[in-house]
């Protein structure tokens, strides 16, 4: 974690010489969010003297998650052209625009490639260094490789025995670990008692997989699974060979057999490999969160129908403007009817059927969400064939510009996602659904999954997966097939679910112990609209702020796609101006 600290007391003019005294700002957490916040502070060109101290056991800019010291096999799930840490002409925040290179421009790689996380790490480290060098002379930065242990008053205590005093303290902690949930403790105890292997939810790059051998169950089919799949196969010496029959996996002999399942029973959708074929719509169109502010809202009844209509609008806008031969009416006529109808109505379904002849070109959110619902197979082998065909079809669709309407839906999905945190806390289902549709792996990772399946290294369990600890094994199955698997290992292929009451972070624990921090019903740290910590008694802290995925303002990734008026940059800009206001500039 990183600490930015500006030493000193409250703002005032010294009577002896009339100069403004040095101010102090402490930001705990040093990944891309902290670097972005510092960039926005610098963009305001503050006149007051600031001494910035950066304290983090990991490299500043990259932080823990994006540190260079991880397997070179692990890659981003975003194309190089879709990653930037700089504001651009789309930015509508109050602070000035300070453009800079995207990841693709900085590395001079293929814009549509998926770089390694090590490449992204260097980009983020460079960004932090770039920001530091571009600061005016009244702001200085010193880097300390240490960890913040606790916050008491306006003092931050570090594990190297030193402390920092701040007029303002900002928690920019990034993704956090959590104490095990009761189920995970029981599974770990069972593994210990019977000589089995259990890996709880954690970041794949941090997992100790050295004891993982034999038959292993992986619970989760998202990006964490993809990383684990890579580390346990290619990471153990296996290799891929491309021939006339497609991609083939050549085992090293050190791989375990991976049995994977989840609630949906299918992997996240592949990233698209094409660009829009039609005109880019102005978004948002139907879902404008600011128009819903101040209302008592139910997510499913009031919010999701508008979100669904917005995403469908992005899909059909691209279908009609990019592929007019696939529809039966002019877009102007379709748009007028679409605008007038509620998303969940028989009339909307009739309009879709009338205007869009191919069901594959219509939007069906329920079918997308649960593609295996009600589908069963007599044997596990039948299901392996079915899911391989499903994955092959997904790769083909996401690689064929004929289906660029999916990209239109994706862009509308991003527009919706960026607005929701300012409106209400995320619905748990929605966050998972968004990740499933929009945060999937590169298509070649799914090709590798198919190759591993054909080689018998990966076996698909199915939907509504269940796991039990039984005698000297972990037993797993699903609603999709009658087959049951006995394994000597269980890996939770997902990130830990953070909650303040179970946080492993010492700073959050220290604040919670004295009531200086509070959580919402989902366990997220409560913050005000401008990011102030909300205390247990409901008061807003005047000088302490928090930002990141562990807070109720968690919607925004620390970096973003260019030309999207990135919510993270707007949030950083707002927070930076609020901090400077408190500091007196």
How would you describe this protein?
With about 575 residues, the protein is an alpha/beta fold. Among the domains are: about 5-175 and about 540-585, FAD/NAD(P)-binding domain (3-Layer(bba) Sandwich), CATH 3.50.50; about 290-385 and about 405-440, no CATH class. The chain has 15 helices and 20 strands. The strands form 6 sheets. A 5-stranded mixed beta sheet has the order 1-2-8-20-19, with helices on one face. A hairpin with a 5-residue loop joins strand 19 (about 530-535) and strand 20. The longest helix has 24 residues, at about 300-320. InterPro entries: FAD/NAD-bd_sf, HpyO/CreE_NAD-binding, L-asp_N-monooxygenase_NS-form. It holds the Pfam family NAD_binding_9. This is FAD-NAD(P)-binding.
Helices and strands in order:
Elements: E1 3-4, E2 25-28, H1 32-43, E3 50-55, H2 103-107, H3 117-134, E4 139-144, E5 148-152, E6 155-158, E7 163-165, E8 168-171, H4 182-194, E9 197-199, E10 215-219, H5 223-232, E11 239-243, E12 246-250, E13 257-261, H6 299-322, H7 331-340, H8 346-355, H9 365-369, H10 380-399, H11 405-420, H12 428-438, H13 443-454, E14 458-462, E15 466-470, E16 473-477, E17 485-487, E18 489-492, H14 506-513, E19 532-534, E20 540-546, H15 567-583
Parallel strand pairs: 2-8, 3-4, 8-20, 9-18, 10-13, 10-18, 13-14
Antiparallel strand pairs: 1-2, 5-6, 6-7, 11-12, 15-16, 16-17, 19-20
């Amino acid at each position: 974690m990183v600490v930015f600290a500006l030493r000193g007391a409250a703002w005032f003019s010294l009577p002896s010489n009339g100069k403004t005294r040095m101010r102090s700002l402490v930001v705990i957490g040093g990944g891309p969010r902290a670097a972005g916040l510092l960039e926005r502070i610098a963009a305001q060109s503050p006149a007051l003297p600031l001494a910035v101290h950066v304290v983090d056991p990991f490299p500043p800019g990259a932080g823990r998650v994006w540190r260079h010291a991880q397997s070179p096999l692990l890659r981003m799930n975003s194309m190089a052209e879709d990653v930037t840490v700089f504001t651009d002409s789309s930015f509508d925040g109050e602070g000035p625009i300070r453009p800079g290179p995207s990841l693709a421009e900085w590395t001079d790689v293929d814009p549509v490639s998926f770089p390694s996380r090590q490449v992204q790490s260097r980009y983020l480290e460079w960004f932090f260094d770039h920001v530091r060098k571009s600061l005016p002379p009244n702001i200085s930065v010193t880097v300390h490789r240490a960890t913040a242990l606790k916050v008491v008053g306006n003092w931050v205590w570090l594990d190297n025995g030193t402390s920092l005093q701040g007029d303002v303290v900002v928690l920019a902690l990034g993704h956090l670990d959590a104490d095990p949930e009761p189920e995970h403790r029981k599974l770990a105890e069972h593994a210990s008692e019977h000589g089995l292997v259990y890996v709880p939810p954690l970041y794949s790059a941090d997992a100790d997989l050295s004891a993982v051998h034999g038959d292993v169950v992986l619970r989760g089919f998202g990006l964490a699974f993809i990383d684990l799949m890579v580390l346990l196969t290619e990471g153990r010496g296996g290799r891929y060979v491309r021939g006339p029959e497609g991609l083939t996996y050549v085992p090293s002999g050190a791989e375990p057999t991976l049995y994977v399942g989840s609630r949906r029973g299918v992997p996240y959708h592949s990233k698209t490999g094409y660009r829009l074929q039609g005109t880019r719509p102005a978004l948002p169109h139907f879902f404008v969160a600011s128009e819903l502010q101040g209302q008592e809202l139910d997510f499913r009844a009031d919010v999701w129908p508008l979100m669904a209509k917005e995403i469908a609008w992005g899909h059909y806008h691209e279908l009609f403007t990019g592929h007019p031969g696939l529809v039966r009416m002019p877009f102007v006529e379709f748009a007028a009817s679409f605008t007038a109808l509620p998303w969940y109505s028989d009339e909307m379904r009739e309009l879709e059927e009338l205007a869009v002849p191919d069901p594959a070109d219509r939007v069906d959110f329920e079918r997308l969400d649960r593609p295996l619902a009600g589908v069963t197979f007599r044997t596990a082998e039948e299901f392996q064939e079915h899911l391989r065909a499903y994955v092959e079809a997904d790769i083909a669709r996401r690689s064929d510009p004929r289906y660029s309407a999916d990209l239109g839906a994706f862009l509308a999905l991003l527009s919706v996602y960026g607005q929701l945190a300012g409106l209400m806390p995320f619905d748990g289902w929605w966050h998972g659904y968004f990740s499933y549709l929009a945060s999937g792996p590169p298509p070649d990772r799914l090709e590798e999954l198919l190759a591993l399946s054909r080689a018998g290294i990966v076996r698909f369990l199915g939907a509504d997966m269940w796991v039990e600890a039984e005698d000297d094994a972990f037993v797993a199955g699903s609603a999709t097939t009658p087959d049951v698997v006995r394994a000597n290992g269980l890996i939770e292929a997902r990130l830990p679910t953070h909650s303040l009451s179970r946080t492993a972070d010492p700073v959050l624990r220290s604040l919670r112990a004295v009531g200086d921090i509070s959580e919402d019903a989902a366990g997220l740290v409560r913050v005000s609209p401008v990011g102030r910590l909300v205390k247990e008694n409901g008061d807003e802290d005047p000088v302490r702020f928090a930002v990141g995925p562990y807070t109720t303002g968690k919607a925004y990734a620390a970096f973003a796609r260019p030309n999207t008026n990135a919510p993270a940059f707007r949030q950083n800009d707002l927070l930076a101006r609020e901090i400077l206001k408190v500091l007196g500039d």
